[in-house]
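During the reporting period the student researcher (J.K.) took over the structure-prediction task from the postdoctoral fellow and processed the backlog of single-chain submissions. One of the processed entries is reproduced below for the supervisory committee.
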Amino acid sequence: MKRSLLLATIAAATAATLTVTAPGATAATALDYAALGDSYSAASGVLPLDLSITPLCARSTRNYPNLVAAATGARLTDVTCGGAQTKDFTAAQYPGLTSPQFDALSAETDLVTLTIGGNDASLFINLILACGSAGLATLGFGSPCRDIYGSHFDNQIDATIGPAVLASLRALRAKAPNARVAILGYPWVVPATGGCFLTMPIAGGDIPYVRSIQGHLNAAVSSAAQQTGVTFVDLAQASNGRDACKPIGTRWVEPALFGTNFVPVHPNALGEAGMARQAMATLGLG
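J.K. obtained the following structure tokens:
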């Protein structure tokens, strides 16, 4: 009788363990998933905030890593943080409040996703501020930003940002040698032509200039991924026509002015959902 009771108890405990896991996975098969990266991975500006981390990271509970984990049943370790640069993989972005992001990695990690590079050399913020200021000075006419800065931002990508992303991906692969690693490109911020000066105060002639710089950054990220055996999640087609100049309900990225996010020029909840879908499709995750 005691032996039968013991076996029944073990069977019940085993069944309970298996049913507690998230949909789509069992305790034995759930992926150990580490999410790294910057504000586009943290969904900075999308509410509600993740209260498990310092508010300085502005991480949302509706970021694409949480959506991927919910859809796949993965065990998520989310260390994404707004403003993160490649240097924050190996050193604390906010000492005493955050740890180096690579601390989330180990030989047991099965899956890693990230976005990175846009904050290195302050590329994104300097580009938007420089071109926004230049556009305001000319009331939206001409191409003042391109005329002033020329190849400056492209040179930064080639000389500094691309090599930093490449080195980081190599180090990441060493820290998580058994993981599938996917780095996402950045969804389009502005359209190919035209623009929307009232909400994105960039001169009409500078819209193609800003778009080309973002395309150059994404190409550098893609090249680093190819050189390190990392999967590149290309968002160019998926986010085309969903830039910050499009209306609410269509756009994936909020404009600089009169947007819905408390952090402008960042993906909204619709954009994060689109990034999650594209990542899962590229990785073949159901």
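The committee noted the following: The chain has nine helices and five strands.
J.K. will present the remaining backlog at the next meeting.
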